[in-house]
Write a structure and sequence with these properties.
single chain; about 160 residues; mainly alpha; 7 helices; 2 strands
């Protein structure tokens, strides 16, 4: 038993760190502005190299499959955590407070319900999930597909 036998455990962590680092480096380039899509494209590329390297060393054995699952889980966890940070009101309040103090009135102005709705609608517009139609907000085809998927998940998990 030598240490090289267990490198398949290290490779997914290195690949995940590379994907996260490349994603951070790609942000200022504005090639893909949607954070999730940008990371998915980068992670898929890095994952392809990971798979190729693992296949060369281990074939299509259990080590390769396990390492790919580990990498996929790490990518999913990363996406979950950064989307949580993007959308969490509590996290955003803490990030604002990290930069300096705010009065309760300032917080209420920043996070009043009209402002919160506006921020969310702007994100939906930016991601082409809704659009203005005759002065009203309507779901786009992409938005309807996503809502249908959410609806199926709610029914699947018994939350309808």
């Amino acid at each position: 038993m030598n240490a090289g036998e267990y490198m398949w455990l290290v490779y997914p962590s290195v690949a995940l760190a590379a994907a996260i680092g490349l994603n951070a480096a790609a942000i200022p380039l504005h090639l893909i502005d949607n954070a999730i899509v940008r990371f998915a494209v980068i992670a898929a590329g890095v994952g392809s190299f990971l798979f190729a390297g693992l296949y060369v060393f281990y074939g299509f054995g259990i080590e390769t499959v396990a390492a790919i699952f580990m990498y996929s889980f790490g990518c999913q966890l990363y996406v979950f955590l950064f989307t949580l940070v993007l959308s969490s009101v509590s996290v955003n309040i803490m990030l604002r407070l990290k930069r300096g103090t705010l009065t309760e009135r300032q917080l209420n102005e920043i996070y009043d319900s009209a402002t919160m709705a506006e921020l969310r609608v702007n994100r939906l517009l930016k991601n082409n999930l809704v659009a203005y139609d005759s002065g009203r907000i309507a779901a786009t085809t992409r938005g309807r597909r996503l809502a249908s998927m959410f609806d199926r998940f709610r029914k699947l998990f018994g939350h309808s």
